[in-house]
Design brief:
- This protein is α/β, with parallel strands linked by helices.
- 47% of the residues lie in helices and 15% in strands.
- It has helices at 18-25, 42-53, 74-82, 103-113, 132-139, 175-181, 194-205, 225-229, 231-241, 243-248, 256-273, 277-298, 306-334; strands at 32-38, 63-69, 91-95, 118-122, 126-128, 146-152, 170-174, 209-219.
Length: 339
């Protein structure tokens, strides 16, 4: 079964191939094309573009910047227009997907409209270091088809790395490799699961992938614990496409403790209706104990005040219910046994 979505189009002046358009304009073809998918975050986008315009690279004409506006917002277009360099170097171009939505659609529009042979992907809320492009390009040796950079938060710390990780908010990929795998799978409508999916398909169908920790991108923050639970929805699709990855690399993919907590909470009113009050009380006590155990595990370091402990307890109460809801929703949507 082919799970790749149909290519998202772009609102452009011409539909000629990128190199043909460049030749027609009699301009030099850049080596690197930076693709930024964005949606309704013009202020963050301005900061990202400003950092890209200040890249320390020997020839400013060696790269271009493509902004793909998934939100079709006039404010975003005007923000991009206002930041275009007076001399047009580096080139700053703006696109909108014609069909579909999501970061995967926007990235596909970007790399298909790009001029460069090397495509660098970054998110609109990320700030690249001044040597980001130079470091990434240098790290992409001839035997590699892609290189993953390093992500850091505002405090300079990097998130824990999974066994396989290719962050689509900081990655350099050869155009030929993207053509070979058909680009990003547009069924991943949210930025969840598309990172390992891209990595696994590149390794399987294009060639080896490397890392470059010196190509650094800083983000204001990483998704909170409650938002991360929604990732399980598209984890079902990732599991359907790459079951061996889940078995060998992702570890325990079924949070049975979450199911047990939800089951105990739902069983309590059933016991009450059946007149078995003792069993209802035991169910609630067991669920509370499991939630407290989850909260204790999440407290890896002491928090500064009582509010932090209360927040951890509150989110630990919600996490099992959100996790189970999104996992079951994903399993039903993609018709896969993923529990």
């Amino acid at each position: 079964m082919n799970v790749l979505g149909s290519p998202g189009g772009a609102l452009v002046d011409t539909f000629a191939r990128p190199r043909e358009r460049a030749a027609a304009r009699a301009v030099a073809v850049p080596r690197i094309s930076v693709v930024i998918p964005t949606r309704a975050r013009p202020e963050a986008l301005r900061c990202c573009i400003a950092a890209l315009l200040e890249q320390q690279i020997e020839d400013p004409g060696a790269y271009e910047i493509l902004v793909v506006d998934d939100g079709h917002a006039e404010e975003t277009r005007l923000a991009v227009e206002a930041m275009r360099p007076v001399d047009g170097v580096p080139a700053l171009r703006y696109f909108r997907p014609r069909t579909g939505h999501g970061a995967a659609v926007a990235r596909n529009v970007g790399w298909r409209e790009a001029y460069g042979d090397l495509i660098a992907f970054i998110d609109d809320d990320a700030i690249p270091q001044s040597d980001w492009l130079a470091r990434g390009e240098a790290a992409l040796t001839p035997e590699l088809v892609a290189v993953a950079g390093q992500l850091r938060n505002a405090r300079g710390a990097a998130p824990s790395q999974e066994p396989l990780c290719l962050p689509t908010s900081n990655v350099f990929v050869r155009r030929t490799a993207l053509q070979r795998i058909g680009g990003f799978d547009e069924h991943f409508e949210r930025p969840s699961g598309d990172d390992p999916d891209l990595l696994l398909r590149l390794q399987r169908d294009a060639g080896p992938v490397g890392r470059c920790d010196k190509a650094v991108v800083q983000r204001a923050g990483f998704p909170g614990c409650l938002r991360r639970q929604r990732d399980a929805y598209f984890d079902a699709l990732l599991y359907k496409k790459h079951p061996r990855f889940f078995r060998e690399q992702a570890g325990d993919t079924s949070p049975w403790e979450h199911y047990l907590i939800v089951g105990l909470v739902l069983a309590a009113p059933a016991f009450m209706l059946a007149g078995v009050t003792g069993s209802a009380v035991v169910s609630i006590l067991l669920a509370s104990a499991l939630i407290l155990r989850l909260a204790v595990r999440r407290l890896r370091q002491p928090l500064g005040d009582s509010a932090g402990y209360l927040a951890t307890l509150a989110t630990s109460t919600l996490i099992p219910f959100l996790s189970v809801y999104w996992r079951i929703s994903g399993a039903l949507r993609f018709r896969v046994w993923f529990f």
